[in-house]
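Section 3.1: Structural characterization of target chains.
Under the original work plan, the team committed to producing a structural model for every single-chain target entering the pipeline before any wet-lab resources were allocated. The record below documents one such target. The sequence was received from the expression subgroup and is listed exactly as submitted; it comprises 416 residues.
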Amino acid sequence: MDIPRQDVAAKKRRRRRAVYAAVGLATVVLTTLGVRGLTPAAPSVERATIVIDRVKRGPMVREVRGLGTLVPENTRWIPATTTGRVERIRLRPGTIVSEDTIILELSNPALEQELHEARLQLQAAEAGLAGLRVQLTSEALQQEAAAATIEADYQKATVQVEANEQLAAGQLIAAVTLRQSKLDAEQLARRFAIASKQMVIHAEATVARLAAQQSAVEQARARVALIKRQVDDLTVHAGATGVVQLVPVDVGQQVEPGTNLARVADPSRLKAALKITETRAKDVQIGQRASIDTRNGLVAGTVTRVDPSVQNGTVTVEVALDGVLPPGSRPDLSVDGTIEIERLDDVLYVGRPAFGRDQSRVNVFKLDAGGATRTTVNLGRGSVNTVEILYGLGVGDEVILSDMSAWDAFDTVRLR
């Protein structure tokens, strides 16, 4: 009987295919695991596009910087003292003026009419005072005349009493006649005493009535003086020697009391008003030294005032200028000021990184043989361009100060 044979060659082919498949699968798995274990290649950065600085040890000056303008030390705003209409502007900004120089003219017909009426009221009050003086003088004279008459009658009665006493002693007149003369004399004496008191009271009343009328005259005179001063103020004078800085009104404009009409300042005495960011202003103190850059030269100065309030994220710091101002310096000129906060004798410091804040921890790229590696650094006290290093770097280390946020995903970069 015949026995069927297995195909040996086919079995070998199937076995070889299985081995190839297993080897291929193992290769794919190993390749995948190897690729996953690889790190991304470090990106390249152009050395010319970044800022590099070397860590140093030594003295460091802490400074803060701010922009500002030059402003006059002595500035005078000229306000309107009454309602008026701008009739004429004689001078424009930039004109040199003295105290009596007229800058502009206002008009107010109602005020001029009021002045005329006030003068008439003053004249009436003065006439009333003069009339009262005449009246009181006449009354005083009448009282004096009446008192004099009573006094004369009293003197006559006294003489008559003396005569009657002598006649009565000789029994030449009746006793009743002597008694009657004595009664007349006593009555005249009382009338004279009353008249004397009336004269005193009238004198006191005269003083009071004259004082009241004099007060009315003074009130009328003060009102005339006030209105006259307001009329005079319609002609606006500079009031100080200097230069007209600003005339913020136009011809024909109606102004109210308190409206600023002009500003006069002395351009020879200027100071710097700097705007310091509120985070930096906490270290600024009165008396600190400063340097003001006018774009045409540097001027030394001293901090004289620090504004206690914050406006738009900045603090105003005023600096008195000690040196001579460079040519071209004038009010409202833009300047750049640097204030010296303190001097540190022996510290480790480097240039300020792009996003490095004082007393903070930052990551910077430190240069090494292969390029630059991300390093954590603790920063301390800072200045305008430098910052203190507390931990993470040593003397001689070189770090990248530029903004490296584009390479946040990498811990190393290559420089080319």
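The two ends are 85 Å apart (CA to CA).
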